[in-house]
Design goal:
470 residues, single chain, alpha+beta, Thrombin, subunit H, eight-stranded antiparallel beta sheet, Rossmann fold, 47% helix, 11 helices
Length: 470
Amino acid sequence: MGTVMYNSEWDSLELDGHELQSGDKVEISIFGYWIPGQIALDTSGWHLLTPDQVEIRLHSGLTARHSEPGISPTPQFHPVEMNAPHILIVDDDPVLLHALPQTISLRIPEAKIDITDSAQDALEQIRKYQYDTIVSDIKMPGMDGLELLARIRELRPGTPTLLVTGHGEHDVAIQALRGGAYDYILKPIDRDYFVAALRRAIKTQLLQRRVEEQQLALELHAKLLEGLVQQQTHELFDAHATKDKTIRILSHALKTPLTHLKEMTQLLRLKLGLKLEGTNTLEMVSQGLADIEHSLGQVEKLVQELLHTSRIETAAFILHRQDCDLVELCGHVLEEYVASTCYALSCESLREPIEVEVDEDRISQLIISLLSTAQMNSTQGSPVTVKLQQTERRAMITVSYSGSPPRLGMEFYISRKIVEQHGGRLEVQSVPENRSTYFIMLPYRIGPVEEQTDKVKQIQSTQALWTVTA
């Protein structure tokens, strides 16, 4: 654990005396919690990029530590760092260098004290550690206290510095205050005044750090809120796009039956008004009403599909999944379908079962819907084939026919959403020679590792093939 230090000469960040590089994993302390992330550098400066992709601005004085490899960091309190002031004393007088730490230890026993007898050594210490307060004599050989104060202002601009000066040297004391010193101590040193000034400096530094942490926490919170707003805005745009697409599909789907209703109504009124000879009025009205009833049935179906779409989009569409054999399920669905129509069904091959976890009712409705669409669009007399295949990772049902390409309306949109909620995909492809195919891909039932391994090894092609002919 150490303090982040910015080296303006090399435009770099240092921690514990080591230069930080982009991509290094570190944690910074905010209100006693460790925030993990990676070091990042861009045109705006150094940042910590958190796992939530939030950038936190880094600067000198932050408490930080290197992340342990392979260990997920968890928030922890470290009250010792908050309550134990770290003090540096710089003086070339060995008597004061011995007496001042003793005085501080008696009055502030929890303080950690470092001492040095030269300004150059003090600068090395200041680069390594973030001190709460620095006490320095002004008159020292080599670099004096005023020059040291200027360097401290460059390296640690927020660190309070107390300068010790001789009695009567008021001009020097004023110069020190103008240079940024927190306070000055006159010799001979009054211990009570010295300790009181030291406590004020430590308290000032503590308050300053709390303000910085609050600013950092507010910055982090603001960026998290910004990310949340962006995410919700993106979801809102997607919802609007889905709504617009649904309206377009619904408008197109409703146009045909409503137009037919309008035409039939106009035709009936025209024929009834003309009273054409040889026209069976009862038969004409009966046929017109039948056509109107058929068109109303289509409108009702579209309304039901719209309700299904609404439930899917609002997560109110619940699937009742259960384990089943997909081969057996498809067989039952096709048998019931041909039983209610005049079509014939033939099955060419049937092999091992395919275990899946699906909502049988929804998948059955889906297969019937695609099969009905295929029959409606297929060329008269051409068969519709339903093939069940087993791939490496998914079971695949294909519905193929020759004829006009399918119209991807509201019914197809609902079918695709149902398959996606099962963790699968629904696609349609049209190839030359008017051949169209629906692809329903569903994941296998999740079982033990041994079963999955065996499943992958048993890469077989077609498991079952059905042909529906008129």
